[in-house]
Specification:
Blueprint: H1 10-34, H2 42-62, H3 71-90, H4 104-113, H5 116-137, H6 146-228, H7 233-260, E1 268-269, H8 270-284, E2 289-294, E3 300-301, H9 307-324, E4 329-337, E5 340-346, H10 354-357, H11 373-384, E6 388-393, E7 399-406
Parallel strand pairs: 2-4
Antiparallel strand pairs: 1-3, 4-5, 5-7, 6-7
Helix pairs in contact: 1-2, 2-3, 3-4, 3-5, 4-5, 4-6, 5-6, 6-7, 8-9, 9-11
């Protein structure tokens, strides 16, 4: 039989501990009968151990293909351990048995493996089991002496105290460990994202450097062609594309130099940002209609050399979505609220697959038009200026992109 769960998993460790407990129970009972001449009810005790062994084999068979189990299933396993131990102890002296403190073990395991609600359920089950053993099983023994009754009562109070303190402390420590692990995971994720951005920036800079020489060479050839054939249509049509390539390269170099200078950030007017977006989109996508509405007066937002290009990426993505859906209107709404400036970009496309919405913009995700690099850069830029980016599908179709940026001095 192939078993999927690992011995290091919570399920594997629980089943291993139960197997050890079953073996120890059987050995202790046999030692008590054969060597210590204890008067033990053989049939019910061996029946309970047999039932516990059958339950163990059934659990292994049921969860053999599972690497982990749900919190509910784990809780049921722990409650079953409490039940088997309680029934076994009810034939072996009840609360007066020295091993009654083992009822604390499922509570500790629950505090480490399941959430607080299930921990409380397991703890209450253990307290109820101890209470049953104290009242229904051990109470008839109290008449043998007042000291015995006081001793059993003290053991019961001590067990309640141990459950409350131990489970509380363990649950608190586990919570802090999980919070620290979540923080470390988030830090590692940010580090990986920065490494991706650094690799992407290095690749972009290398490509730009490699393109600079052939574009300069093409510009010289174009000048010679213009001198020899000034009225040729092909020469005139080549002038504008090559000029755009040179302008893009120069712009990229300027942005790179600005990024190298620390502390060069300055506030940008929201009206200026909207004006730049409108002008750039008119050059790149003249067929798209940009409807801009600034609902509140212009404010100053935290500037960054890559802020406008990053916001332009969002508008460009909207334009591409519109082109795929044969639509032409992009709606931009800007407003200030509670110390932040919001820019919403609404397209008329078909939207983004729901399973990609949570990861797109935060990691490299394959999309219809690439791997989401533009959104990744946009998300990183907004985070750098303490901003946020939110993407959501609209019920009527299309994507609503919301950029949230802090207002300077707010």
């Amino acid at each position: 039989m192939v078993i999927a769960f690992s011995p290091q998993s919570a399920l594997g460790q629980l089943l291993l501990l139960r197997s050890i407990a079953i073996v120890l129970q059987l050995l202790l009972v046999l030692i008590s009968i054969l060597l210590l001449d204890k008067d033990i009810p053989h049939k019910p005790v061996f029946t309970i151990i047999a039932l516990e062994s059958a339950f163990q084999l059934l659990s292994i068979f049921v969860y053999r293909r599972s690497r982990e189990i749900s919190e509910k299933a784990m809780t049921l396993q722990l409650v079953a351990d409490i039940l088997f131990l309680s029934v076994l102890l009810s034939f072996l002296g009840g609360a007066s048995n020295a091993f009654v403190s083992l009822l604390l073990l499922p509570c500790i395991i629950a505090a480490v493996t399941v959430s607080i609600g299930y921990v409380l359920f397991v703890s209450i089950s253990a307290l109820a089991a101890y209470g049953y053993l104290y009242i229904a099983v051990s109470m008839p023994m109290h008449h043998h002496g007042m000291h015995m009754g006081e001793h059993l009562l003290g053991m019961f109070v001590n067990f309640v105290f141990m459950v409350v303190v131990t489970v509380g402390v363990v649950a608190l420590l586990v919570k802090r460990i999980r919070e620290r692990e979540a923080l470390l995971a988030k830090t590692r994720e940010k580090q990986l994202q920065q490494e991706q951005l650094l690799a992407l920036g290095s690749a972009a800079a290398q490509v730009t450097h490699q393109l600079a020489t052939p574009i300069a060479h093409l510009s010289l050839l174009l000048e010679e062609l213009h001198e020899d054939f000034p009225d040729h249509p092909a020469v005139r049509e080549m002038t504008n594309p090559i000029s755009q390539c040179r302008a893009q390269l120069e712009g990229f170099r300027d942005q790179t130099e600005l990024l190298k200078l620390k502390g060069n950030k300055k506030a940008l007017s929201s009206a200026f940002v909207l004006e730049q977006l409108e002008e750039l989109m008119a050059l790149q996508y003249p067929k798209q209609v940009i409807e801009i509405e600034e609902k509140t007066p212009s404010v100053d937002i935290q500037g960054d050399p890559m802020l406008i290009p990053s916001l332009l990426n969002l508008v460009v993505n909207a334009a591409k979505a519109n082109e795929r859906a044969n639509k032409t209107v992009i709606a931009l709404n800007a407003f200030a609220n509670e110390g932040h400036w919001y820019l919403t970009i609404k397209d008329q496309g078909k939207g983004i697959a729901q399973q990609k919405l949570d990861t797109i913009g935060k990691s490299v995700v394959e999309s219809d038009s690439g791997f989401g690099m533009a959104l990744l850069l946009t998300h990183a830029t907004l985070e750098r200026v303490n901003g946020e980016l939110k993407l959501e599908n609209m019920p009527e179709g299309g994507v609503l992109s919301t950029a949230k940026l802090p207002i300077v001095g707010a």
